[in-house]
From TrEMBL:
<feature type="region of interest" description="Disordered">
    <location>
        <begin position="172"/>
        <end position="206"/>
    </location>
</feature>
<dbReference type="InterPro" id="IPR012854">
    <property type="entry name" value="Cu_amine_oxidase-like_N"/>
</dbReference>
<dbReference type="InterPro" id="IPR036582">
    <property type="entry name" value="Mao_N_sf"/>
</dbReference>
<protein>
    <submittedName>
        <fullName>Copper amine oxidase N-terminal domain-containing protein</fullName>
    </submittedName>
</protein>
<dbReference type="Pfam" id="PF07833">
    <property type="entry name" value="Cu_amine_oxidN1"/>
</dbReference>
<feature type="signal peptide">
    <location>
        <begin position="1"/>
        <end position="28"/>
    </location>
</feature>
<keyword id="KW-0732">Signal</keyword>
<feature type="domain" description="Copper amine oxidase-like N-terminal">
    <location>
        <begin position="57"/>
        <end position="142"/>
    </location>
</feature>
<feature type="compositionally biased region" description="Low complexity">
    <location>
        <begin position="172"/>
        <end position="182"/>
    </location>
</feature>
Length: 287
């Protein structure tokens, strides 16, 4: 596995405000120059990190409304080890002394060698194995919550087992001044959807547009909104978006968009994560 490395990244940002409740769209993955933009709903959060995009495809709900996760991507993000045997079509996940074994297109699952059944099956999608989230939660003993179509996996051990999360935590985050952010209400901003627009022909800059909602319950003045996108490339390098970007005022329950140009000098985007909070403390007159 490649080591992750932080880059210094300066991005131009554009912002637009949307009416509350604007629905997102979903589409198949793409990315070649001149191809159409694709959008995905944000369905997964690992500790405080929203998972906006994983390559080559993202978490989704199957026909039985079961949340399916890309096994290798999620395993890397939480720091578990995964192996796949093509002959038996079995995948094994190991984390913190627990093991999960699943079989492609089979409801059979084994937790630490003890077999039971799932209510839906692992599948291949765009060459990637997707597994029911319940298999990982039950088998690896991971705490979770599910609210408003967002699955949050929570465990402090992720910060040690995951190389990427460990580096993100060690960085301390960023603020407009470039120092660690003084962020109150760490869940004030919720990313709802992400749109990836491939480079135009003859260019090497794609655009990542994030649609988010102010879920704090009160209005945020200009400068308080603090969505922090994190871009991870397939060469192991990563970067925060520009800390000095403009931060628009966002009224309670309003939805807004931020667009970030992202170069391809480091290869293709592997992950897009984000932390959604606010800068400063809540004032008494905002109650």
């Amino acid at each position: 596995m490649k080591a992750f490395q932080r880059l210094s990244l300066s991005l131009v940002m554009t912002a637009s405000l949307l009416a509350p409740g604007l629905a997102g769209t979903t589409a198949a993955a793409g990315g070649s120059p001149g191809s159409a933009a694709v959008s995905y709903s944000v369905l997964l959060k690992i500790n405080q990190y929203y998972v906006l995009y994983t390559t080559p495809d993202v978490p989704y709900f199957d026909t039985q409304q079961r949340l399916m996760l890309p096994l290798r991507a999620v395993s890397e993000l939480i720091g578990s080890k995964v192996g796949y045997d093509s002959a038996s079509k079995k995948a094994t996940v190991a984390w913190e002394g627990q093991t999960v074994e699943v079989t492609l297109n089979s409801k059979r699952v084994a937790y630490n060698g003890k077999e039971t059944k799932l209510d839906t099956v692992p599948v291949l999608k765009n060459g990637q194995l997707f597994v029911p989230v319940r298999a990982l939660l039950n088998g690896l003993h991971i705490k979770s919550t599910f609210r408003d179509y967002l699955l949050t996996m929570t465990d402090e051990r992720f910060y040690k087992s995951s190389k990427l999360l460990s580096e993100l935590e060690a960085s301390g985050g960023i603020s407009p001044s470039g120092s660690p952010a003084s962020t109150a209400e760490p869940s004030a901003i919720r990313p709802r959807a992400v749109t990836l627009t491939p480079p135009k022909p003859g260019t090497e800059t794609s655009t990542v547009t994030i649609r988010s909602e102010n879920v704090s319950g009160y209005d945020l003045p200009a400068g308080a909104e603090n969505l922090q996108p994190i871009f991870v490339w397939d060469n192991g390098k990563w970067a925060f978006a520009d800390a000095a970007r403009a931060r628009p005022p966002v009224t309670a329950s309003n939805t807004y968009k931020l667009s970030f140009p992202v170069g391809q000098a480091n290869g293709s985007l592997k992950y897009v994560l984000a932390v959604g909070g606010m800068i400063g403390e809540r004032h008494a007159d905002s109650d």
